[in-house]
Design a protein that fits this description.
The protein is mainly alpha-helical. It has two domains: 182 residues, MFS general substrate transporter like domains (Growth Hormone, Chain: A, Up-down Bundle); 198 residues, MFS general substrate transporter like domains (Growth Hormone, Chain: A, Up-down Bundle), CATH 1.20.1250.20. Helix content is 81%, strand content 0%. The protein has 15 helices and no strands. Helix 1 crosses helix 6 and helix 6 runs antiparallel to helix 7. Keywords: Cell membrane, Membrane, Transmembrane, Transmembrane helix, Transport. It is found in: Cell membrane. It is a multi-pass membrane protein. This is MFS family permease.
Length: 403
């Protein structure tokens, strides 16, 4: 009888693993974008400008990159659950730090911890969610992992914006909510059984791109750089655009604008899974150019609707080009080298989500937020056009290594 009950319990844990791990994934990613609508409040309380906001935001990318490079492959060696629990500890620590934040230095620590949680969690949680399903359903697992990842990122600004705008304790309540979600996520990971065979080894993640994949990588990574730069811009200063350029001080609206780019990206990634890589990267680059033209016009005319449309269009372009660009790159290399190539691709993406945004902050300090945003849009549009032109030239020449 006891053995039967134990067997039944094991089966129940296996059945629950998929939704539990997807929930934990979404909960962690939600926390990484939670502060977005709150930066204006911190700026007013601590007396800093948009430049400091972008630097605080960029600390997140440093944490992500550090985690990707140091522990990116650990879950293959020690299992998914220990690594996921480590990521959740960092997420919990980040929320607690933000709960008591009273200086820019503390905000930087909170964002760094948040980046570490995301860097540890993203790859491992994606693998765990996919592995929690039978082999025949792995494609569905990949779809759900994408939704949990990008959906979590998109939910953070909406949740925080609503709480900040309509509930008391604006700088603490969002993080109390996140602490509760993280505690539930810890329980979810503890309940879910291990999904990895533990066949890897512990070591620093190597970064490299084989010669045969470099032409593809350069094109795809350029598109990824442009798309992630825009994601970083909207995640860090979209509420500032809404408040300072448009003149709308509603934090829920600012949060919704920041969220929209993630939601559009998730929808585009799912819808574009069957598009040929070259066509997807080219189409994504073209759509991103359109989005940047809309953003520049929206900032010039102080249009809230225009900024929202720009976020949706740019998110669509980023989603199509990023996911299919990665697919194009990994198709060019042997299985045993895909981890290092994928990691290199993500390093480019997370450099793009931080450094250009800090550049935009410097420009805002010198020229004002509106002009900085317009210049940013023009530069990203030019970069996306270069990527698009390169793909078209490669296709016309019939270059085998093209995306």
């Amino acid at each position: 009888m006891a053995a039967a009950a134990l067997f039944s319990g094991v089966n129940t844990r296996r059945r629950l693993a998929f939704p539990l791990l997807a929930f934990a994934f979404a909960a962690v990613m939600l926390g990484t974008t939670l502060p977005t609508p709150m930066y204006a409040l911190y700026a007013a309380q601590m007396h800093f400008a948009v430049l400091t906001t972008t630097i605080v935001f960029a600390a997140y990318a440093i944490g992500v990159l550090g985690a990707l490079l140091v522990v990116g492959g650990w879950s293959d060696a020690i299992g998914r659950r220990p690594v996921l629990l480590g990521g959740l500890v960092f997420a919990l620590a980040s929320a607690v730090v933000f709960l008591f934040a009273d200086s820019v230095a503390v905000l930087l620590v909170g964002r760094l911890l948040s980046g570490l949680s995301a860097g540890i969690f993203t790859g491992t949680a994606t693998a765990a969610v996919v592995e929690a399903l039978p082999a025949a359903q792995r494609e569905r697992g990949a779809v759900v992992a994408t939704v949990a990842n990008i959906g979590g990122l998109g939910s953070g600004p909406i949740l925080a914006g609503l709480l900040v705008q309509y509930e008391p304790h604006a700088l603490t309540l969002p993080f109390v909510v996140h602490i509760v979600l993280v505690v539930l996520a810890i329980a979810a990971v503890l309940i879910a059984p291990e999904t990895s065979d533990r066949t890897g080894r512990i070591g620093m993640q190597r970064l490299s791109v084989p010669v045969e994949a470099r032409a593809v990588f350069i094109t795809a990574a350029t598109a990824a750089f442009a798309g992630f730069a825009v994601m970083g811009l909207f995640t860090s200063v979209a509420p500032a655009f809404v408040a300072n350029v448009v003149g709308n001080d509603n934090h829920a609206v600012g949060g919704a604008v920041a969220s929209s780019i993630f939601l559009a990206s998730a929808a585009a990634q799912l819808a574009g899974r069957r598009i040929a890589p070259a066509r997807a990267v080219a189409a994504g680059s073209a759509v991103l150019v359109i989005g940047m033209v809309i953003l520049a016009a929206a900032l010039h005319f102080s249009s809230l609707t225009g900024i929202l449309v720009a976020a949706l269009v740019a998110g669509t372009g980023q989603g199509i080009s990023f996911s299919r660009g990665l697919a194009a790159v990994v198709e060019q290399v042997p299985t045993e080298r895909r981890a290092e190539v994928s990691s290199t691709y993500f390093v480019v993406a997370y450099v793009a989500i931080s450094l250009p945004v800090v550049g935009a902050g410097l420009a805002a300090h010198a020229w004002g937020l509106r002009t900085a945003g317009e210049v940013f849009a023009v530069v990203v549009a030019a970069l996306a056009m270069v990527c698009l032109a390169a793909i078209l030239v490669q296709e016309r020449r019939g270059t085998p290594a093209s995306v």
